[in-house]
Amino acid sequence: MQHQDTANNKTKLMLKKVMGTALSGALILSMPVMAISQAAQAATAADSLTAAKRLNSLLGNTKSMTANFIQTTKGPNGGKSGLSAKNGTFSGTMSLQRPNNFRWNITSPSEQLIVTDGNMLWVYDKDLQQVTRQNADQQVGNTPALLLSGDTSKIANNFKITQPNATKNYYVLYPKNKGSNFNSLAVSFNGGKPVMMVLNDSLGQVTSIKFNNVKLNSSIPSSQFKFTPPKGVDIINQ
Predict the structure, then answer these.
(1) Looking at the 3D structure of the chain, how many domains does it have?
(2) What's the CA gap between 47 and 39, in Å, rounded?
(3) Is residue 81 part of a domain?
(4) Disulfide engineering: 182 pairs with which of 23, 132, 158, 201, CB 3.0-4.6 Å?
């Protein structure tokens, strides 16, 4: 039982960091609370609508995506954190296809895989020879995976969308669900392609993900989003 609890905690931590781009600190700070006039409130609302439309347009043009990534997680005090206590930097490959197909494969320094076909979500830790299986709706609904691979029409229902600089294609999203695993998510585009994300989670950690070799709208075999547990591994149902 203790082994399973430890495995479950590790799985949840991994999902928080993965599922869910570095930008300046200004992108990931909440707006200060202040008294504002009705005119200012109207302008803010209009800006939010514009930001949502622009982000939806960019994401709507991404039917599928493949990329390499480098992911770095720092703890609340700026120290390295992550799946390995000795190294907070990971690299690997990812692919997605709308709607709700997502594959995140960490290849270094250890091998871990998160994959979903929109129905079942699998987390495979090769070193532990362990697989966690759960309904995809339990995680995808309020995580960054929704932003990249989910239904764009639902994004505004789940996030408050802001565009700090109207001339630059980066956006900061704040989850409306108070039970979300993260506090804010920033995403940056270059040439219409997602190139960077920054995630502030509820533990005070900051995860930066840089994408390179990004390819949009290429054909991806459906088998990429299917998973069959290897023989002999422990399977944990959540």
Answers:
(1) 1
(2) 12
(3) yes
(4) 201
pLDDT tens digits, one per residue of 35-76: 333 333 433 433 688 888 899 888 888 889 999 999 999 987
Q: In what order do the strands lie in the sheet with 159-162?
A: 159-162, 170-175, 182-190, 193-201, 206-216, 64-74, 89-97, 101-108, 112-116, 120-125, 130-135, 234-237
Q: Where is pLDDT greater, at 24 or 87?
A: 87
79 vs 40 pLDDT, higher one: 79
Residue 169 included in any domain: yes
In a domain, 172, yes or no: yes
Domain interval for residue 115: 2-27+41-237
pLDDT tens, 91-103? 999 999 988 899 9
How high is the pLDDT of residue 79? Answer: 55
Percentage of the chain exceeding pLDDT 70 = 72
Is residue 35 in some structural domain?
Answer: no
